[in-house]
Amino acid sequence: MKFSKxxxxxxxxxxxxxxxxSEVKKHYSITxxxxxxxVRILNRYGISWLDRPRRKWxxxxxxxxxxxxxxxxxxYRDVALDLGLSSVxxxxxxxxxxxxxxxxxxxxxxxxxxxxxITKRNQKxxxxxxxxxxxxxxxxxxxxxxNAYLKALRELAINDQKKRK
Length: 165
What we know:
mainly alpha
């Protein structure tokens, strides 16, 4: 679950006032590990850390972090804290993807890929092959729906005949 900046600041202030994890959990649905990671990162970098811009990590930076965990046997949490990652989970994902991709660091696109929407303005820019593909996709979707409808109709007719016997 993502928390707002104010939620994170409130959790941190509660901790500073002497409230433990169990009291904070009553107000916020946060895991113990994530709570203490938040406290440690804010202790190290200060509350201004929450205002930092989103960062794109290079392949080399990811590789160094992965090597620290896999080769130097440093803890995930310590490496994530040193780098100032927003969560330990980011490093975990980097390592999982690294191992899954044959020990190659892969740069992933941030965010979702947007589907091209055909409008009058950009219709001229779209290649004829793309137009044909879109048309065929729509036709396929229509035919699948029509096929499903006819199958359902046939099934109803069969069930009706069975009831009459």
